[in-house]
Write a structure and sequence with these properties.
The chain is of the alpha/beta class. The protein contains 17 helices and 14 strands. The strands form three sheets. It has a six-stranded mixed β-sheet with strand order 1-2-10-7-8-9, with helices on both faces. A four-stranded parallel β-sheet has the order 5-4-3-6, sandwiched between helices. Strands 12-13-11-14 form a four-stranded antiparallel β-sheet.
């Protein structure tokens, strides 16, 4: 299908779903606009009923099924948001559905799928990633005849997501840059297809997390190239293999892909919550996290960041805060040898740490009568520059130490 053919599909999708979805606001962010000397707007898809854009594509796809197909029911795979969209659609149209979800899906998303699907949807947790769950869902479809509803690689799904692009254009038709998170590519394919047809000068930028940059890899190699491993921190975009259709579209409409470390995403999640009161999931914060990478080129420009979702389990916030502090260089872990005699910790506090530094972890067990024993020490700094000063002081006072790096096995025990 040609890119301009999607315009009609997107406009038809808008009419089909307009009574189900919210036309989400395009909100001007004064704080970030001042920081980047530009005009920054948020497209707030986190305000949808299911707190994600996924309702658009799911409802558009399922509503087009004929009576015979509806009797067979539907099946899908999802890390959470697409599952909620399918569940919501099934309940609205009274269609039976089965949803396969990775076993590491946050509990908050599982509970929301149950809530929206009510008695119409059955959930099965299987696989370590979206791709493994998708494999099982497709097997189930072949076995039972249930209609498979793709998460992203489908014309009707893409057209549904593309209604976001139409809303952006209707509200602000002279946008210079649009930043869109990428998982399998359905969201950016829909938005980019519409906006590129309406405004040839617009820049469509895809944002991917460092641990799941599947579209970037495929575009670089000019073929669909699955990732060997995926970091599931940004679970909403943790996709090993992009879609064939989305890959073809993205080759034509994406101007640049920005890859963001997961720690930077964590910083943006906390930043948005503390300053704008916006709760985002990791994937939902990706677009805002990408602004630093283009700070010079967007000066004086109009920029839209698509906040794709806000389904974040409150139990994840300690992990998010931890990642944020470590990324900013404000939290560090050490193994430190202490003399096994009274007063050593007090000496360390008085002579090594600065007045604004804090010990947040200290684990030490005296197991024998050796002269020294190692302690696990976690230190939170007021300023990341304090780390060099602490190291200098440890060396000055003869402390034998080892910095625990993220490649060390014990690091995963701590984080």
């Amino acid at each position: 299908m040609k890119i301009n053919d999607f315009i009609k599909k997107i406009e038809e999708a808008e009419q089909r779903i307009k009574n189900i979805i919210k036309k989400t606001p395009l909100i001007y962010c004064e704080r970030l606009s001042k920081i980047y000397q530009s005009k920054i707007y948020f497209k707030r898809e986190d305000l949808q009923e299911i707190r994600s854009f996924k309702i658009r594509g799911a409802f558009n796809k399922i509503s087009k099924l004929n009576d015979q197909e509806r009797k067979k029911g539907v099946v899908t795979a999802s890390a959470g948001n697409h599952a909620q969209g399918v569940a919501y659609s099934c309940a609205k149209m009274k269609i039976k559905g089965k949803i396969f979800m990775p076993v590491n899906t946050p509990n908050q998303k599982i509970e929301r799928v149950k809530y929206f699907g009510n008695e119409y949807v059955e959930i099965e947790l299987i696989g370590q990633s979206f791709d493994e769950s998708s494999f099982e869902a497709k097997k189930y479809s072949e076995k039972t005849g249930a209609i498979y509803v793709p998460a992203f690689d489908d014309e009707e799904i893409i057209a549904g997501q593309g209604t976001i692009g139409k809303e952006i254009h209707d509200d602000l038709n002279d946008v210079d840059y649009v930043l869109v998170p990428i998982g399998g590519g359905g969201l950016i394919s829909g938005i980019g297809s519409y906006l590129k047809e309406k405004n040839k000068n617009i820049k469509i930028l895809g944002i991917e997390p460092e641990g799941a940059a599947s579209m970037s890899l495929s575009l670089k190699n000019k073929k669909i190239d699955p990732l060997k491993n995926v970091d599931t921190f940004c679970d909403g975009v943790a996709v090993k293999t992009v879609g064939k259709l989305t890959f073809d579209i993205c080759q034509k409409i994406i101007d640049k892909i920005i890859i963001i470390p997961e720690g930077k995403v964590a910083v943006s999640i906390i930043d948005l919550f503390q300053n704008e009161g916006i709760i985002t999931e990791p994937a939902g914060a990706l677009s805002v996290a990408g602004l630093d990478n283009i700070s010079e080129e967007i000066k004086g420009k109009k920029v839209v960041c698509v906040i794709s979702g806000g389904n974040n389990d409150i139990l994840r916030y300690p992990e998010i805060l931890e990642k944020s502090l470590i990324y900013q260089g404000k939290k560090h872990y050490f193994l430190i040898d202490f003399f096994q005699k009274p007063g050593q910790l007090k000496f360390f506090l008085n002579n090594v740490l600065g007045p604004n530094d804090d010990i947040v972890v200290f684990e030490y067990i005296k197991k024998n009568n050796k002269e020294k024993g190692p302690a696990l020490v976690g230190i939170e700094l007021k300023d990341k520059k304090d780390l060099n000063l602490i190291i200098e002081k440890m060396e000055k006072f003869g402390f034998n130490y080892k910095i625990i790096k993220n490649t060390d096995l014990i690091y995963n025990y701590l984080i």
